[in-house]
Amino acid sequence: MRRSPGRAERPRRVRPAPAVVHRAVRVTAAACAGFYAFRYGLDRPASATYALFAAVALGVLARVEGSARTRARTILWTLPAAWALVCLGTVLAVHSWAAALGMVGVGFAVSYGSVGGPRMVGLANGLQLLYILPCFPPYSPEALPQRLLGVTAGLLLLAAAELLLWPEPAPPDYRGRLSRAALALAELADLAADACAGRAAAPGAVTSAADRARARLDELRFSRVPVMERPAGAGAVDRALTHCASALRYTGPQVLRILRLARPYPGAAQLTAVTAQALRAAAAGLPRAGPVPDTGVLDRELAAFDTARAALPQPGRTDRTDPTDHAGRVRPALGTAALDSAEGARFVVRAVRVGRHAALPPDETPADQRPGPFWYAYDPAPLLWWRRFRANLTPRSVAFRNALRTAGALGAARLLAGGLDLSHGFWVLLATLTLMRTSAADTRTTLRPALVGTALGAAATAAVLLVVGEHPLVYALALPPVMLIAFTAGPALGPAWGQGLFTLVVALVFTQLAPASWRLAEARVVNVAAGAAIGLLAGLCAWPRGGAQDLRRRTAGLLEDSADAVRETVAVLTGTGRPGGALRRARTSTLLTEAMYAQYRCERHDPAGDGPNWQAAVLAGQHAVRGAEPLLARIPPGTAAPHRGGARALLGHADEVAAAFRRQAAALRTREPAGAAHPAVARARAALVAELDGPPPAPGTDGRVPLHAVDVAVWLAGLLDDLQQIHEPG
Question: For the whole model, what pTM was predicted?
Fold first, then answer.
């Protein structure tokens, strides 16, 4: 009998992963050790409370990833911030309005700190709790030393637990992904070199190597990388690793283009072989203990090839036996593909050098061309961080908008809890913080199981309090196993289990601090419902549709900025224009769009919708920038076309490509079907490819073919290829 689709596709419950169990054990051990030591050993209830919640904040609410040493070090680094937040919350608890204003400031600052990279994103919720807890009555500035003592003990115990209890090895990092991708491209480049040398590859070898390279490059997408592994920080190392990934994604299509155009061409074979060697050196240098790669050999080979290519006779002679003049129609494009792949590998190696804190050659970015692609290698770290924070202070930034929404929701929750004098009002803010999502739809989806779980947990809590009564020893014995189950089942079984079991945990904690009745369970339900409602309203008012609508606008803006960068780059290379900052604006637009796309990937959306391939649209913008950079570095301004006719032709092609980018941007803004701009893009690409595959371009006054014009034309054709990918399913 055939099973129904619903039954066949229903997800099966699985046992919690060992890492989840290990983390639950570490948090439970640290929280209970601090709580019991202060509550029963030293009779300091305030210190006991803060020791427990500090361990829970950084161990459960926060996401601290990496090896055991890295996690412990991160926890210790948060101690100064934890002290500052506890002090601030204690002082501002004097009035509800002061605490609410402080909550707005702290909520915005901590949430906006996510622009600093994944570690700040992971720590945000935990740090918020360290202000939320002390900003509620009673106003007790005299208890500040005990609170600080408890927070310090809780975090120190959690750091010790990370090192001593089931210390986990370091997870695979982004450097490993980059290294594997570079090795796969090196293998593919070897096959391309053999093809240019006239050596046939084994049947299926090229297809197999190309598939491996595509798979490795696909692993570099941030949508395929866990959030905490992404090199998204503001420092030079993370920027260099991101640049390395972009350069590898740019190099891959160039190597594939060599294989498609491959004809016997000794110079291209030699350059492509050296490209493969450079990629292997980059792969070996990506691990922190590997040898730092160098571009000396590749630089010399690039210069020699460019000189030899320019000195070749004009192609198209009738003597097809001349090895320097065979298949004249494809040789310029083949040489361009070899140069582009080598330039991509050169960028990869130099990005690796920046990531290893090695010096770049003095002539990497001449003073008159700064800022170049590696501008961040010359600036101190504080300046890089300041630039990142300043660049995101705009409503176009997803981090800025998330910070505003978080600050508004938490401030409103604090005002509500203070105005209504809710018992245990910090639960309102905790519910708002943990249940609010980036869109109203996501918040609503999370709301139902959270409320159901809280109600069931409250019912169980009320039953326990009625049956056990005032017997703290029973609650003390029950706390560790219940906490362990809660922190294990919550991540594995969903928000209903997490909220329900956490309700029981907090009840077991507070009954050991003061006598409690079944009313404690009632207060928990009311507070969670209020916090969830505030989170839902914040999603409705601030960003009801989440990242989907903004991604559409942001991607359209990226394509428009890329169009300006393409037109300006060709104008500079042909000597018909001057730099005007378009390339810099396109770089910034690329970063903002990547952040928006990452937000979109974290939200619920209809995969069967008629939207475009967003990943392809982002890559089109990236390739516009990454392709312009090596051209501007290699081709002196004004030399791409040796005569006015050639310059006009290149500018005409650039205008067509820019128009294609703008048409696609307009199609996104007006929500036209994904393929609305496809015919125009296809026609522009067909015309450009026909020219590349046709007779060679007219020679200059010296009788030589303007090969730099071919380089620019191949780049433009590649951009049109990228635009066509937007119309394919993503």
Answer: 0.75
